[in-house]
Amino acid sequence: MTGSATLQPVIVGAGPAGVRAAQTLVAHGLRPVVIDEAGRSGGQIYRRPPANFQRSPKTLYGFEAARATAVHAALDGLADRIDYRPDSLVWNAQGGLLDVLHGRSRTTRSVPYRQLIVATGATDRVLPVPGWTLPGVYTLGGAQVALKFQGCAIGRRVVFMGSGPLLYLVAYQYAKAGVDVAAVLDTARFADQWAAAPAMLSQPAVFLKGLYYVGWLRARGVLMHGGVRPLRVLGDARASAICWHDGTREQTLECDAVGFGHALRSETQLADLLGCRFAFEPLQRAHLPERDGAGRSSVDGVYLAGDGAGIMGADAAEWAGERAALALLADHGVPVDAARARALERRLGKLVTFRRGLERAFPFPEDWAAHASDELVVCRCENVTAGELRRTVQDCGADEMNRLKALSRVGMGRCQGRMCGVAAAEILAHATGQPVQQVGRLRGQAPIKPIPIQLVSAEGAGA
Ligand SMILES: Cc1cc2nc3c(=O)[nH]c(=O)nc-3n(C[C@H](O)[C@H](O)[C@H](O)COP(=O)(O)OP(=O)(O)OC[C@H]3O[C@@H](n4cnc5c(N)ncnc54)[C@H](O)[C@@H]3O)c2cc1C
């Protein structure tokens, strides 16, 4: 048995999953290191504005105000019992060391770990549309971050487009903040959403919140279309209109900003660098790190929790964070409450029905690649178009993602495929006639997020 005094767990991520994991470890007498690139804890959903901003939790988080306050209070309450390192980006992992960039001091240092909980959350899943690189076009998550973190709107007259629960939530938050929401354009059909209702009723409170957002927008006369195919964002210097197909004809609407996205994708790069085994998860249409019901990865000592290992939402992230911490403790001989561990797993298991319902309500637009024109920019870091990807397939025989990257530079820029990887895989699958799971996934490379180049060159020079 390893006594708890010898355990020095590290948690990456101070969102709901990381916070509950930290709380659980502290409750068992440990002092974990908690690393987060954000300046304040809370993660994405409970993102906190800068300390000098004065907005009430109700204004910032709406129905989630109580949960947000509870998660914030949980980490704040641990202040002297954890080693909390905000503004700290983990950009590499190898040989039992995490390379961490401290954003304010611009210094990098190595943090050793033997037990690690990865709770790195998610980002937007992006399916580009012509014109998406124009100023004034943001992802849905980006649009929400602007509002939540800085109290800024992305425009005065905004169209939200794509699919997923965030579409309606962000539109509601913008309209409530006084922005003119010109339209909500959903690629899913309203019939999909009704068909999914029985499964989504397995989480009645969440389902009702969704209905409330839609009803609220409708009551205020916001234009809402389902079953659309986004065609292009128009504009010269910045977005000035949006054009879509509504099933019978093309429509155009003036706006000065667009928020778009198709649900979320897990931030799996760190799990990848850590050597975790991945498998294709059809429900999420993504390669995800494997984990057991308790959050154990395929690598000893590495645990996975929250949206970073599969999108399950904020409540699930809290439960998974606690469950992963209990697994870590139990694996090292620390007595834990087994009944509590089982109850958490049961709760997490029950969410699968709801998750299936969400996928049915907001299905991935599987015909996206077939409609993507050759001129469409897929990778904006390296300016790689859909046509160049198709030519790489035809001329060089690329049939796998890493080969496609090597030959076309897709995913080789600053985002390392975090933004373009999903779309590139769809184009590759369509061009080669393979199911998307067979084209594989981009291998993780350090740095997993952009860092100043002089830091890497200084390391390389042994500085
Ligand atoms: C932009 C965005 C907006 C969202 N808004 C909502 C919403 O309004 N309502 C809702 O129900 N759900 C929302 N979601 C989903 C919701 O945020 C998640 O379900 C929930 O936050 C998951 O919790 P988590 O702890 O797993 O991850 P997160 O809350 O995402 O926390 C992960 C944390 O890890 C940190 N991190 C990630 N990588 C690194 C690294 N390499 N080094 C250091 N730190 C790192 C991040 O800074 C972050 O604080 C949103 C998701 C996104 C991406």
Task: Summarize the structure in words.
The chain is an alpha/beta fold and 463 residues long. It folds into three domains: 4-122 and 265-334, 3-Layer(bba) Sandwich (FAD/NAD(P)-binding domain); 126-262, FAD/NAD(P)-binding domain, CATH 3.50.50.60; 368-439, Orthogonal Bundle (Arc Repressor Mutant, subunit A), CATH 1.10.10.1100. The chain is 36% helix and 21% strand. The chain contains 16 helices and 22 strands. Helix 1 links the parallel strand 1 and strand 2. Helix 1 packs parallel to helix 10. The site of flavin-adenine dinucleotide has 37 residues, from helix 1, strand 4, strand 8, helix 4 and helix 5.
Describe the SSE topology.
Layout: E1 10-12, H1 16-27, E2 33-35, H2 57-61, H3 65-76, E3 83-85, E4 88-94, E5 97-102, E6 107-112, E7 116-118, E8 122-124, E9 137-139, H4 140-150, E10 157-163, H5 165-176, E11 180-186, H6 190-195, H7 197-200, H8 204-219, E12 223-225, E13 229-234, E14 241-245, E15 250-254, E16 257-262, E17 264-266, H9 269-273, E18 278-281, E19 286-289, E20 302-304, H10 314-331, H11 338-361, H12 368-371, E21 377-379, E22 384-385, H13 386-396, H14 401-408, H15 421-432, H16 453-460
Parallel strand pairs: 1-2, 1-7, 2-3, 7-20, 9-16, 10-11, 10-16, 11-12
Antiparallel strand pairs: 4-5, 5-6, 8-17, 13-14, 14-15, 18-19, 21-22
Bound molecules: flavin-adenine dinucleotide (FAD).
Flavin-adenine dinucleotide (FAD) binds at residues 12-18, 35-38, 43-45, 89-90, 119-123, 141, 144-145, 166, 169, 264, 267, 270, 306-308, 313-314, 317, 448-449.
